[in-house]
């Protein structure tokens, strides 16, 4: 599937700072074993407008920067590293379109030189709330954020069913064999695995919602690690999928158990997701959503 390359600026690079040792954040969906996900209407893209010239009164940049998931009618869950280290005048928006990159390109033709109008054409503006302890230690970076949105505006633009969140300790309750037997799916708008070309390695694609199967690898207090290995039938995450969902089939219900945070640089091996059944994640989310 052909998708338009993502536009990445210096500010976005800063927003994607390292969060866990030498691993890299802002992952995306690989080309192998992946498929479009038009049915995952609760999965969206985080769109930002910001300024990088001498006139901060008006934005002069607009782009999609990360992925995320609607977890109720007015709350979009994403990663804190997607919503920090921006200029003061940054504004965040959420789009649930299947092809956000294409929508931005079409809107830019209709509204040349007006990034704010481009953002409004494809997304709804909201307010970001980051975990107050981000960035924390590697054992738990608290890399979690929500965007509060006007529910009526979201309902006018898109029809979606918010993702189901896990109960406390849901992944621990599965125990090792249960985790190995569980079906996991990662989704997002990110780029593809590393490709070697004349100019070196690149990560093509991005901006279109895709999904891919992944399998259980390891569980820590704050993290669930998911294998992206192609021979096992897995796909995986890459740049631009940060904040996006990792679903698991729990008792017959597709459940949002983690958000993509980091992984290996080439995007071939492991997706590291922040657990949503942990006490720290639930404490952060409690003021914004009703938890199971």
What is the overall pLDDT average? 85
Q: Main beta sheet, described? A: 6 strands, antiparallel, barrel
What overall geometry do the principal axes of the alpha carbons give?
A: globular
Residue windows where pLDDT falls under 50 for at least 5 positions: 1-28
What does this protein look like?
The protein has 292 residues and is an alpha+beta fold. Helix content is 17%, strand content 32%. It has a six-stranded antiparallel beta barrel. A six-stranded antiparallel barrel has the order 3-4-5-8-7-6. A two-stranded antiparallel ribbon has the order 10-11. Strand 15 and strand 16 form a beta hairpin. Helix 2 crosses helix 3. The protein is globular and about 55 Å long. 50% of the residues are buried. The N terminus is likely disordered.
Distinctive features:
single chain; 292 residues; alpha+beta; six-stranded antiparallel beta barrel; six-stranded antiparallel barrel; 16 strands; disordered N terminus
């Amino acid at each position: 599937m052909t998708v338009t390359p993502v536009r990445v600026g210096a500010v976005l690079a800063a927003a994607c700072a390292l969060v866990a040792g030498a691993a890299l954040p802002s992952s995306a969906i690989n080309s192998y074993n992946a498929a479009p996900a038009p049915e995952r209407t609760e999965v969206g893209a985080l769109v930002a407008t910001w300024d990088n010239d001498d006139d901060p009164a008006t934005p002069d940049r607009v782009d999609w920067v990360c992925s995320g998931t609607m977890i109720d009618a007015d709350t979009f869950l994403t990663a804190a590293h997607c919503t920090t280290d921006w200029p003061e005048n940054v504004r965040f928006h959420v789009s649930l379109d299947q092809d956000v990159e294409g929508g931005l390109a079409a809107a830019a033709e209709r509204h040349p030189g007006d990034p704010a109008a481009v953002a409004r054409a494809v997304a709804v503006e909201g307010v970001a709330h980051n975990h107050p302890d981000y960035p924390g230690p590697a054992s738990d970076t608290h890399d979690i954020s929500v965007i509060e949105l006007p529910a009526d505006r979201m309902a006018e633009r898109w029809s979606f069913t918010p993702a189901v969140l896990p109960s406390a300790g849901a992944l621990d309750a599965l125990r090792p064999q249960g985790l190995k037997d569980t079906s996991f799916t990662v989704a997002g708008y990110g780029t593809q695995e590393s490709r070697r070309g004349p100019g070196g390695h690149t990560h093509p694609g991005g901006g279109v919602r895709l999904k891919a199967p992944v399998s259980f690898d390891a569980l820590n207090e704050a993290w669930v690690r998911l294998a992206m290995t192609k021979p096992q039938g897995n796909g995986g995450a890459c740049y631009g999928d940060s904040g996006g969902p990792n679903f698991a089939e729990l008792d017959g219900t597709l459940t949002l158990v983690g958000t993509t945070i980091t992984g290996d640089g080439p995007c071939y091996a492991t997706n590291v997701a922040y657990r949503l059944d942990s006490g720290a994640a639930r404490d952060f989310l409690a003021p914004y959503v009703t938890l199971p």
